Amino acid sequence: AAGVIQSPRHLIKEKRETATLKCYPIPRHDTVYWYQQGPGQDPQFLISFYEKMQSDKGSIPDRFSAQQFSDYHSELNMSSLELGDSALYFCASSFGRGLYNSPLHFGNGTRLTVT
Amino acid sequence: KQEVTQIPAALSVPEGENLVLNCSFTDSAIYNLQWFRQDPGKGLTSLLLIQSSQREQTSGRLNASLDKSSGRSTLYIAASQPGDSATYLCAVRSEKLVFGKGTKLTVNP
Prior knowledge:
The complex is a heterodimer of chains A (115) and B (109). Chain A is an all-beta fold. Helices cover 0% and strands 50% of the residues of chain A. With 109 residues, chain B is an all-beta fold. The interface between A and B is medium-sized, with 21 and 24 residues.
């Protein structure tokens, strides 16, 4: 079965650079979520999109932005990168924003290292 | 604000033991609860999903229970194996999915 695809798997950037992470949800899933997991930490919710509109916002820094496109894939844009942005970034997808009983399916994550 | 706590933070057991991982949450108004497995530096693998109307779910050697009124869930692993070594995360779904900090399990051969 198709899963959530994230790219790239690994990304190394320098401070103050920009990074773009991509997420391709499971086919027919219309909701995408972004999470950030720092070293030794639990995943923290950043932002979510339903039908191309932002549906919820968590602890996402102002330096980050995201969007969901017409094909439901999503991109997380990170600017003015800081050392503390080094983390594993997960994307998850589900079907139906209002269907809170539907499970979230996670991708394998993008490991971002800022040097 | 929903808070999820997992106890213990780390657990080391000999192979073959049955074990229980605990998860508690502060707001019982949840839709469901998911248990995930995470290997070091890897993604999140969903193990079990329990809807708020359910009491337990089973998959192979894993059994998860949910007591929504008391804000508790347990993950029972039977006959543990070295391959079960990983961090186990509990996540509670209200409007957001909120994670606990996980229990790092080591099963020694």
